[in-house]
């Protein structure tokens, strides 16, 4: 799935005695002492500071033996831009699975026969790289040692507290379509940059280029083969202006592939877009010389 919203189910990794299991749980903790689920609890995230300072009785009851991992490909966050909000997707550059620190609980509600398993994601202050996006981010466990420590410990310790820090890993973060904000919708395009979508900018220009290639040549650009007399006349005209024709063609083809072109036709300054002015190349083009004059033969009568 590409769009998991709060109060929907997701896979969670936790310990079950000596075993490690993957279990589907609902996002948003419902405490074990709760009798009814009215949806009013705001427990989709647990602030890491409340775990380390012990100020939350709810998180204190879970942080010892009910720690979990939430495996994801990435997460969404909304960037405020004036009065608008633009969704962004954050993931590893290598596109590998990201392990988020979580807590879980199970409750037996009075209006349900089945136990309800729920989870929350632990957050911390944002890293320097992602501070432009939001002041908070999930706790990302990137090393094998951190993952084992978070998952295998049965009590809270100073070593575990040290895991509640912003990740130093370099992530990939980019804008995604706003449709991701609609609960219940899902599409592979939700995790792709906007420009790579089928209806994005790159796709638009690609379609235009394909149409241009397939466009037939207008009839006005084609002409019937000239008669031998006309063809001979044109051949002489081309021979006469041969030097001029070659020079102007070379100049046109060169100027179409550079970023700047000097006005002086004798010194064409070709500036590569990746170089500065000091690295420019000067190409000398000589003045076209006029064709040699031919002496006309006069046939005198005898």
Automatic annotation (TrEMBL):
Comp. bias regions, Basic residues: 292-302
Pfam families the record matches: SRAP
InterPro entries per record: SRAP, SRAP-like
Instruction: Give the record's keywords alphabetically.
Output: Covalent protein-DNA linkage, DNA damage, DNA-binding, Hydrolase, Lyase, Protease
Q: Which domain of life is it from?
A: Eukaryota
- Write out the biased-composition intervals (Low complexity): 248-262
Chain segments carrying region Disordered: 208-302
**Compositionally biased region (Basic and acidic residues):** 231-247
Any one GO MF annotation of this record: single-stranded DNA binding
Q: Its family?
A: Belongs to the SOS response-associated peptidase family.
Q: In its UniProt entry, what is this protein called?
A: DUF159-domain-containing protein
Q: Which organism is it from?
A: Hydnum rufescens UP504
């Amino acid at each position: 799935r590409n769009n998991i919203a709060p109060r929907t189910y997701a896979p969670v990794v936790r310990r079950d005695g000596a075993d490690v299991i993957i279990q589907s749980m609902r996002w948003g903790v419902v405490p074990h002492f709760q009798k009814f689920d009215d949806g009013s609890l705001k427990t989709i995230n647990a602030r890491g500071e409340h775990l380390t300072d012990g100020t939350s009785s709810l998180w204190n009851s879970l942080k010892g033996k009910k720690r979990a991992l939430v495996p994801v490909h990435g997460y969404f966050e909304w960037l405020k831009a004036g009065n608008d909000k633009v969704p962004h997707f954050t993931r590893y550059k290598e596109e590998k699975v990201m392990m988020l620190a979580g807590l879980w609980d199970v409750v037996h509600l009075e209006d349900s026969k089945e136990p309800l398993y729920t989870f929350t994601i632990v957050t911390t202050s944002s890293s320097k790289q992602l501070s432009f996006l939001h002041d908070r981010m999930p706790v990302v466990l990137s090393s094998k040692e951190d993952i084992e420590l978070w998952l295998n410990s049965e009590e809270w310790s100073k070593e575990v507290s040290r895991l509640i820090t912003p990740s130093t890993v370099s992530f990939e973060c980019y804008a995604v379509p706003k449709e991701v904000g609609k609960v219940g919708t899902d599409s592979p395009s939700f995790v792709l940059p906007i420009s790579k979508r089928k209806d994005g900018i790159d796709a638009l220009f690609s379609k235009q280029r394909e149409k241009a290639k397939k466009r037939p040549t207008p009839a006005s650009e084609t002409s019937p083969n000239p008669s031998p007399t006309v063809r001979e006349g044109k051949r002489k005209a081309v021979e006469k202006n041969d030097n001029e024709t070659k020079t102007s063609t070379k100049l046109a083809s060169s100027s179409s592939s550079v970023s700047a072109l000097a006005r002086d036709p004798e010194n064409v300054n070709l500036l590569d877009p990746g170089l500065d002015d000091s690295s420019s190349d000067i190409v000398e083009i000589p003045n076209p010389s006029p064709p040699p004059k031919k002496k006309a033969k006069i046939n005198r009568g005898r």
